[in-house]
Design goal:
Order of helices and strands: HHHHHHH
Oligomer: single chain
Strand content: under 5%
Number of helices: 7
Subunit structure: Monomeric.
Family: Belongs to the globin family.
Radius of gyration: 16 Å
Low-confidence stretches: 1-26, 189-195
Keywords: Cytoplasm, Heme, Iron, Metal-binding, Nucleus, Oxidoreductase, Oxygen transport, Transport
CATH topology: Globin-like
CATH superfamily: Globins
Distance between the termini: 32 Å
Structural class: mainly alpha
Protein name: superoxide dismutase
EC number: 1.15.1.1
Largest sheet: none
Number of strands: 0
Shape: globular
Amino acid sequence: MSRRESPPPSPPPQLLGVRSGEVEREDRPERAEPLSDAEREIIQDTWGHVYKNCEDVGVTVLIRFFINFPSAKQYFSQFQEMEDPEEMERSSQLRQHARRVMNAINTVVENLHDPEKVSSVLALVGTAHAIKHKVEPMYFKILSGVLLEVLSEDFPEFFPTEVQMVWTKLLGAVYWHVTGAYTDVGWLQVSSSAV
C-alpha cells in the first residue's frame, strides 16, 4: 500500500453519529475535555517531527481524504474533478490548502497553553467553513480520523497507541470547538434521532 492509499474507508458519516447538515448535539459535552500538561507536551513533541514535513504530510492527508471521501471535493472547485492521486499531488491549489490546514493545526499545537487563543482560532476556522464555504461539519470529524491515520502510519516511531490516544483527545477538542462555531452561527439543524 502506498502512502496515499489506505484501508477501506471508514463508515459513512451518518454512522459516525452525524447526519448531513447537523452538528452533534445529543452527546456534546458542555466543554471539551482539557489536556493535561503531560498530554500537551506529548502533542507538542510529536508535532515537532510532523511539522518538519508539514506540506508533504498535509498533501498526503488531503489526498487520502479526497480518495476515501470523494464527496468532500465538492467544496473545492479548483480540484473537484481530480481523481488521480498524482494529479492531486501536483496541484498547487491542493498544496496551498494542505499548508493552510497544517498551519492551523500548528497554531493550535503552539498555543495549547492558551485555551482562549485555541478557542478563538478554531472559532474562526469553524465560522469560515460554516458561513463562507458551507462545509458540512461532519467532514472535520472525518478529516481528523484521516489525519491520525496518516500520522500513525508515516511516523510510527512517534505515534504508538498511547500517543494516538492523546491526539484523539486533542482532535476531539478541535471538533468540539469547530462545531461550536457552527452552532453559534445558526448552522444547527438538530435531529434528536442522530444515528
